[in-house]
Design goal:
- The protein has 452 residues and is an alpha+beta fold.
- The chain has 2 domains: 230 residues, D-Maltodextrin-Binding Protein, domain 2 (3-Layer(aba) Sandwich), CATH 3.40.190; 201 residues, Periplasmic binding protein-like II (D-Maltodextrin-Binding Protein, domain 2, 3-Layer(aba) Sandwich).
- 44% of the residues lie in helices and 11% in strands.
- Strands 1, 2, 3, 4, 5, 6, 7 and 8 form an 8-stranded mixed beta sheet that branches.
- Helix 1 packs antiparallel against helix 16.
- The protein is globular, with a radius of gyration of 22 Å.
- It starts with a helix and ends in a 6-residue tail after the last helix.
- The N terminus is likely disordered.
């Protein structure tokens, strides 16, 4: 998966250069006025994305078609990497893109300062009027560096939590209730103790890979500071890396490439891997296609090792400028993302936590989730989301994520020290991102934001 993403990022980088030559994706002059609400509009739109977004949209289509009975919606969904590769190729070619495209957070940085997508701040969309209703840090991540272009409207945020197997923890003699699990895993020493207890040689492990103990510190993808200095030793991260070294040395992780392989997902479904961390959207993945038959066996807890509340991923909906059905596409986006009813229907269906703040004012956020052992998971995610801090986003983040994962894994396998791994990661990252790094500085200069 990681290697595949790196290849995809190269495709997107090439496509972004082509986008820039095609203009900034602003609406044409004959569309300068705002859309006048037209409930009778007749159109067929294609909505593209990845699972479990399709299940979310199926949940709201009846309501949407009550409002817009003559808009037919076709869902074209595939794996995340495949979707973004096809989308980038279609935009570069000028044809073949859906009318509405899901954009994952890792890819937004690649699109927001290039062409290919409608600027939703401008007429006929005028999305800026809705800004106060959306989570600020998430909204800002889809803005161009000069703040003048918005490539997508916020769908969901990803307050990050641990997803752990209650049954495995109990069998290993560990606490299984969320509050007690959080206490157990509050320090890296506690994490290693849990890893040792869960471990059964060739049969059961705490994690898919020890790499995550370190990379979970960077779920926000805050790899660079505002001076574009690479920061791989943020507070607490070196201690996490030392724990990862110990875990790998003792064989307490499954040593799988990552959590996205078929093998890793099967291991989580069977209980041979006991824990992962992800944005809350992962709960929908578990329920719908990773382990749908394991209801009641899972628990959700805050991140381990003192890692601050974080956001991992989340998505947006944007309109490719080549779409012939922009008005109908916009009606779909507004209904799906800017109404309390639709956002909460999708949240119920797939655990995509709304980035639309008015949706949070609903009794459903205090309901128990039987799949997660009766926990009030939504209330936990609301609490986490309120303390997530804004981060600095760059063009390089998506590439850094993959390179960092691979470099740390290699260092663990080779028995390197934490400092040796960090130095190797810095060198690999700067080599892989040099072209994008220089291009990003040019973007900042053009926006008047770089004088160094």
């Amino acid at each position: 998966m990681i290697k595949r993403l790196l290849s995809l990022f190269l495709v997107i980088a090439v496509a972004a250069t082509l986008f820039a030559a095609c203009g900034n994706g602003n609406s044409s002059s004959d569309e300068a006025e705002a859309f006048k609400e037209n409930k009778d509009i007749k159109a067929k739109i294609v909505v593209g994305g990845w699972p479990a977004g399709d299940e979310a949209f199926k949940a709201i289509l009846p309501g949407f078609n009550e409002e817009y009975p003559n808009i037919e919606v076709e869902l074209n969904f595939m794996q995340t990497a495949d979707h973004h590769q096809q989308l980038s190729t279609a935009i570069a070619a000028g044809s073949g893109a859906p009318d509405v495209a899901m954009l994952e957070q890792a890819w937004v940085g690649r699109y927001k300062d290039a062409g290919g997508f409608e600027n939703l701040l401008e007429a006929p969309y005028n999305a800026g009027s809705m800004k106060e209703d959306f989570v600020e840090y998430k909204w800002n991540l889809a803005l161009s560096v000069d703040g003048k272009k918005l490539v997508g409207l916020v769908w969901d945020i990803g307050p990050a939590t641990l997803f752990y197997r209650r049954d495995v923890f109990q069998d290993a003699g560990l606490p299984s209730e969320p509050e007690e699990v959080e206490k157990q895993l509050a320090t890296w020493e506690g994490v290693l103790e849990a890893a040792e207890k869960v471990y059964i040689p060739n049969e059961r492990w705490l994690l898919p890979t020890a790499v995550y103990l370190y990379t979970w510190n960077y779920m926000n993808r805050d790899f660079f500071n505002e001076d574009l200095e690479l920061v791989l030793d943020k507070p607490g991260s070196i201690e996490a890396l030392e724990a990862a070294i110990t875990m790998r040395k003792n064989g307490w992780d499954a040593q799988l490439p990552d959590m996205w392989t078929n093998e890793a997902q099967a291991a989580l479904a069977s209980g041979s891997v006991a824990m992962v961390a992800a944005g809350c959207w992962y709960g929908g993945f578990i329920k719908s296609w990773i382990a749908p038959d394991t209801g009641g066996l899972w628990g959700v807890a805050r991140l381990p090792g003192g890692i601050a509340d974080s956001n991992w991923g989340g998505s947006y909906l944007g309109i490719p400028s080549q779409s012939k059905n922009k008005e109908a596409a916009w009606y779909f986006i507004k209904y799906a993302l800017a109404t309390k009813e639709a956002q909460n229907e999708m949240f119920k269906a797939v655990d995509y936590f709304p980035g639309y703040i008015p949706a949070w004012d609903d009794p459903m956020y205090e309901e128990e989730d039987s799949f997660f052992g009766g926990q009030k998971t939504r209330a936990l995610w609301v609490d986490i989301s309120k303390s997530i801090q804004p981060t600095f986003s760059t063009l390089m983040d998506s590439t850094v994520e993959g390179v960092l994962h691979n470099t740390v894994n290699t260092g663990l396998n080779e028995g390197k020290s934490a400092q040796e791994i960090i130095e190797a990661a810095k060198e690999a990252i700067m080599n892989e991102t040099r072209e994008d790094y220089e291009r990003y500085i040019e973007i900042l200069k053009e926006a008047g934001l770089w004088d160094k």
